[in-house]
Predict the 3D structure of the following.
Amino acid sequence: MPSVVRPAGQPDLVAEAAKVFGNTVRLSIINALRQGPALRADLVKRTGLPAKTLGAQLTELEAMDAVKAEAQQSRGRPMLYYANHARLERLLSALAQYVLADVRSAGAETRIEPH
Protein backbone atom coordinates (compact mmCIF):
# COMPACT_ATOMS: atom_id res chain seq x y z
CA MET A 1 0.00 0.00 0.00
CA PRO A 2 1.43 3.41 -0.90
CA SER A 3 2.37 5.71 1.93
CA VAL A 4 0.39 8.90 2.44
CA VAL A 5 2.37 12.06 1.81
CA ARG A 6 1.42 15.00 4.01
CA PRO A 7 2.83 18.48 3.51
CA ALA A 8 4.82 19.94 6.39
CA GLY A 9 2.74 22.07 8.70
CA GLN A 10 -0.59 20.57 7.68
CA PRO A 11 -2.69 20.13 10.84
CA ASP A 12 -3.75 16.63 11.84
CA LEU A 13 -7.44 17.55 11.63
CA VAL A 14 -7.00 18.70 8.03
CA ALA A 15 -5.41 15.38 7.07
CA GLU A 16 -8.22 13.54 8.86
CA ALA A 17 -10.84 15.68 7.09
CA ALA A 18 -9.26 14.85 3.74
CA LYS A 19 -9.62 11.14 4.54
CA VAL A 20 -13.25 11.47 5.61
CA PHE A 21 -14.49 13.89 2.95
CA GLY A 22 -12.11 13.05 0.12
CA ASN A 23 -13.97 9.91 -0.92
CA THR A 24 -17.26 9.99 -2.85
CA VAL A 25 -18.52 6.76 -1.27
CA ARG A 26 -17.88 8.06 2.24
CA LEU A 27 -19.60 11.32 1.37
CA SER A 28 -22.60 9.37 0.11
CA ILE A 29 -22.82 7.47 3.40
CA ILE A 30 -22.54 10.64 5.48
CA ASN A 31 -25.18 12.27 3.30
CA ALA A 32 -27.50 9.27 3.73
CA LEU A 33 -27.13 9.51 7.51
CA ARG A 34 -28.55 13.06 7.38
CA GLN A 35 -31.95 11.33 7.23
CA GLY A 36 -31.18 9.84 10.63
CA PRO A 37 -29.65 6.67 12.07
CA ALA A 38 -29.88 3.59 9.89
CA LEU A 39 -29.14 -0.09 9.75
CA ARG A 40 -26.67 -1.25 7.12
CA ALA A 41 -29.50 -2.60 4.92
CA ASP A 42 -31.20 0.80 5.08
CA LEU A 43 -27.96 2.51 4.06
CA VAL A 44 -27.63 0.16 1.09
CA LYS A 45 -31.11 1.28 0.00
CA ARG A 46 -30.45 4.97 0.68
CA THR A 47 -27.14 5.06 -1.17
CA GLY A 48 -27.52 2.38 -3.83
CA LEU A 49 -24.05 1.13 -2.92
CA PRO A 50 -23.15 -2.57 -2.89
CA ALA A 51 -23.31 -3.97 0.66
CA LYS A 52 -19.64 -5.01 0.59
CA THR A 53 -18.48 -1.53 -0.47
CA LEU A 54 -20.73 0.14 2.07
CA GLY A 55 -19.52 -2.14 4.86
CA ALA A 56 -15.85 -1.46 4.14
CA GLN A 57 -16.40 2.29 4.12
CA LEU A 58 -18.54 2.21 7.28
CA THR A 59 -15.64 0.47 9.00
CA GLU A 60 -13.28 3.23 7.83
CA LEU A 61 -15.69 5.98 8.90
CA GLU A 62 -16.06 4.35 12.32
CA ALA A 63 -12.28 4.13 12.70
CA MET A 64 -12.08 7.87 11.95
CA ASP A 65 -14.89 8.54 14.47
CA ALA A 66 -17.04 10.15 11.76
CA VAL A 67 -19.74 7.49 12.17
CA LYS A 68 -20.82 5.69 15.32
CA ALA A 69 -22.49 2.31 15.61
CA GLU A 70 -24.69 0.86 18.33
CA ALA A 71 -25.86 -2.72 18.65
CA GLN A 72 -29.63 -3.01 18.62
CA GLN A 73 -30.43 -5.30 21.53
CA SER A 74 -34.10 -5.51 20.71
CA ARG A 75 -33.28 -6.54 17.16
CA GLY A 76 -30.45 -8.95 17.84
CA ARG A 77 -27.16 -8.36 16.07
CA PRO A 78 -27.76 -5.51 13.60
CA MET A 79 -25.86 -2.30 14.19
CA LEU A 80 -27.51 1.09 14.01
CA TYR A 81 -25.22 3.66 12.36
CA TYR A 82 -25.38 7.40 12.86
CA ALA A 83 -23.25 10.37 11.93
CA ASN A 84 -21.01 11.83 14.64
CA HIS A 85 -22.09 15.41 13.94
CA ALA A 86 -19.72 16.99 16.46
CA ARG A 87 -16.73 15.26 14.86
CA LEU A 88 -17.87 16.07 11.32
CA GLU A 89 -18.32 19.73 12.24
CA ARG A 90 -14.80 19.89 13.75
CA LEU A 91 -13.32 18.32 10.63
CA LEU A 92 -15.22 20.65 8.29
CA SER A 93 -14.22 23.67 10.36
CA ALA A 94 -10.55 22.66 10.31
CA LEU A 95 -10.72 22.10 6.56
CA ALA A 96 -12.43 25.44 5.92
CA GLN A 97 -9.90 27.25 8.11
CA TYR A 98 -7.01 25.60 6.29
CA VAL A 99 -8.38 26.25 2.81
CA LEU A 100 -10.07 29.62 3.29
CA ALA A 101 -8.25 31.34 6.17
CA ASP A 102 -6.44 33.88 4.00
CA VAL A 103 -9.52 34.54 1.87
CA ARG A 104 -11.70 35.12 4.93
CA SER A 105 -9.21 37.30 6.77
CA ALA A 106 -8.69 39.49 3.71
CA GLY A 107 -12.44 39.81 3.18
CA ALA A 108 -11.95 38.79 -0.42
CA GLU A 109 -14.60 37.10 -2.48
CA THR A 110 -13.67 33.93 -4.26
CA ARG A 111 -14.64 33.88 -7.92
CA ILE A 112 -14.23 30.98 -10.26
CA GLU A 113 -13.69 32.11 -13.82
CA PRO A 114 -14.96 29.84 -16.59
CA HIS A 115 -12.29 28.41 -18.86
Q: What stands out?
A: The helical segments are 12-21, 24-32, 40-47, 51-63, 85-106. The chain has a mean pLDDT of 87. The beta strands are 38-39, 67-71, 79-83. The longest strand covers residues 67-71.
